[in-house]
Specification:
Length: 263
């Protein structure tokens, strides 16, 4: 399903469909091949998303630039762009809280406009970006079995830039693009979890070391040593692992000093 501005329908209908169908086949094929070979393991999340957006520009007839928004729960959205003007347009969109990408993601429906300045669906957004010489937009939801993971914005400076063929190609491209985006998201989440786990293990290790030092120094139990660390943390307004690290560092300095004096 495609949501069109009323005036777009007539323009799209008057487009020579046979000519349109012959355009962009090689670009679409090449982009889909590149998308299938995209390695999310070798690049960071933003780099991968940017590459997906670049391939969309290559594939979709009429596109001058594209942006991609990844939606994540409990985290700020990740937004990338292929060109500075795309970043500027998306900044307007998200600043206002209205625009084709927001609608595409919310409704899981492709949004097309060939005259943003006069589009009644996003009056504030349209008027602002039209003054930036951006008049056409094609926004595609990125849908997987888990739901909408993001949306892709494709922009053009010309009016009525996106034909029915552009929509068809965009929707074909959006299917594997959604999988690539989701894979990149899962990998990034896995890396974040691994980092957090490593940090937790390191933190636990230094706290255990500090507890051992206090036990050997004062002859207290493990619970009492931990209670002392927690009291120090509160009194010094520092995180517990920072206080523990300070205790360990101090013990190391003392040991080295004794070793030096003995030598």
């Amino acid at each position: 399903m495609v949501s069109d501005e009323p005036s777009d329908k007539a323009a799209a209908g008057s487009f020579d469909q046979e000519t349109s169908r012959g355009l962009g086949q090689d670009d679409l094929r090449d982009s889909l091949i590149a998308l299938s070979h995209l390695s999310t393991g070798r690049a960071g999340l933003k780099e991968t998303l940017t590459r997906v957006a670049e391939l969309a520009v290559q594939a979709i007839p009429g596109a001058d630039g594209a942006g991609l928004t990844l939606l994540e729960k409990d985290r700020s959205d990740t937004i990338v762009a292929t060109a500075p003007f795309v970043s500027a347009v998306d900044a307007v969109q998200y600043g206002l809280g209205q625009g084709p990408c927001i609608s595409a993601a919310a409704k899981a429906t492709t949004m097309r406009s060939g005259s943003l300045g006069g589009d009644s669906r996003w009056p504030q957004f349209g008027s602002k970006v039209a003054r930036m010489d951006v008049h056409s937009a094609l926004s595609l939801p990125l849908v997987t079995s888990d739901g909408v993971v993001g949306a892709m914005n494709v922009y053009a400076h010309a009016k009525q830039a996106f034909s029915d063929r552009s929509v068809e190609v965009g929707q074909l491209f959006a299917v594997p693009a959604a999988i690539a985006v989701q894979n990149a998201q899962v990998l990034a989440q896995t890396k974040r979890l691994a980092t957090q786990l490593q940090e937790a293990l390191s933190t636990r290790a230094v706290i255990d070391q500090a507890i051992g030092i206090l036990m050997s120094r004062s002859g207290v139990s493990a619970d009492e040593a931990f209670s002392r660390l927690r009291t120090l943390s509160q009194n010094q307004h520092q995180r517990l692992n920072a206080v523990a690290q300070s205790v360990v560092d101090q013990a190391v300095r003392r040991a080295r000093s004794r070793h030096t004096d003995a030598g």
